[in-house]
Amino acid sequence: MLIMFNSSTVQYFIVTLIIFCSTQTLAEEADCQSLSEAHCLTSSQCTLNYISENTYSCDMAKNTCEQGFTQWTLFPTDTLIENNSAKSHSAPINYEQMKSCEIKAGCKYSNAEGYCEPGFNCSVTGGKPAMCEME
Fold first, then answer.
1. Residue 111: CB partners within 8 Å, gap ≥ 6?
2. What are the boundaries of each domain within the chain?
3. What does the DSSP assignment read for 33-77?
4. 52-58 long-range contacts, Cβ below 8 Å, gap at least 24?
5. What string of pLDDT tens digits covers the 135 residues of the chain?
6. Could you tell me the pTM of the whole model?
């Protein structure tokens, strides 16, 4: 059985699909922007982006590196923690978090630098959170 569509039906379908997809993206973006800093860090669909010192924006993950990556640095055991004194304001490295990023092709892990997660007292604040970025 052959189903025929006229061009106006196809155009209507395409326009409807475009509007639906755009609306879905705007809704997801708005969802990210409504999250607190702590909730943004734990979201696998949103990314906390550094704007300037102590200024951040929670945005929808924009690429395969950011998608599925959780920025909240949890340390399940002491063996996962290493301080890199070669970097100023360096944070401990969570190797499980690093692995969850770098296992993806074309992605590199960028450790938190001068960033203090909500609920912690830190000597340095206002910097960049951990990121999973395109190489």
1. 84, 87, 90, 91, 93, 98, 130
2. 7-134
3. HTS-HHHHHH-SSEEEEEEETTEEEEEE--STTTTT-------SS
4. 53/126, 53/127, 54/125, 54/126, 56/129, 57/33, 58/32, 58/33
5. 455 545 554 344 343 334 333 334 444 556 999 999 999 998 999 999 999 999 999 999 999 999 999 998 765 444 344 444 444 445 667 788 899 999 999 999 998 888 888 877 777 788 999 999 999
6. 0.67
